[in-house]
Amino acid sequence: MSRYPLFAFFFAPIALLGCSADAGDTVSGPPASTVASSPTDPPADGTTPAPTQTTPTPTPPKPADDPGPAPAGCTGITKDKDGFFKRTTAKSEYVAYVPKSYAGKPTMLVVGMHGCGDSAYNFATWGVNPGTSRDKQAHIGISIGGKDGACWDTTADQPKVTAAIADIATCFYVHQQKVVLAGYSSGGMLAYKMGLGDAKKYAGIVIENSGLGNASPAGAAWKINVAHTAHDGDTSFPLAKVQADWAKLEAAGIPLQKRNVAGTHDGTSDDWSDWLLPKIGSWKAP
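Predicted structure:
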């Protein structure tokens, strides 16, 4: 298992869809005024009773597939030897990787936010676009810059994220219902804050070694998908606190996929390639 250096996390305390449950069949019986008779006996008037009608409850339709308009395209993209490139918005720089399979069709976007002390480029290579699965990945992956070496402000830094999403969508065909927020440590708190606070814009949230912070699952506009992996020995986000956050998500009806495994606060590429990113393939916003 690949491991990455511990990025210390210091911060002051702060202050798809479609119905999966069957409602069952509704049976139309005789009017209340009808005299009941034995199933083996004909009615008193000698007529043959009409068969009982069963009306199945219709299943609500799944959200219409609406990838949004195709991009106008952009210029000035220069990739490094590993396929990564940088772009700059009015808010910050970001690092991007477009999969080899991209052919101009609507594609899922994973938007990554690194942990304290890490950089956009580094997180792009080990978290958002892990090396072991990069050749086969199907998503476009971007990692937000502007806070290299620092922690995120979960309110003030949101425009950096939204600006990068808008910019990459001018270059490549990002499916507007398939934008997933991804975060490690401090970046996970920003992902939770944005994903739960403006849920209808996002297909889901993937988290490694982080917590809710001041995000509230109770106010989510829809039951957004969440996958969260935690490490048993994480002292920055102790398991008991993480489990309390999981309980809040579940109490709010959020469809949470969760696990805790051995490890410290150090992030691992295997968490992303082997468990987190494989969860997102079918995720889609309303």
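Summary: The domain at 84-279 is CATH 3.40.50.1820 (Rossmann fold).
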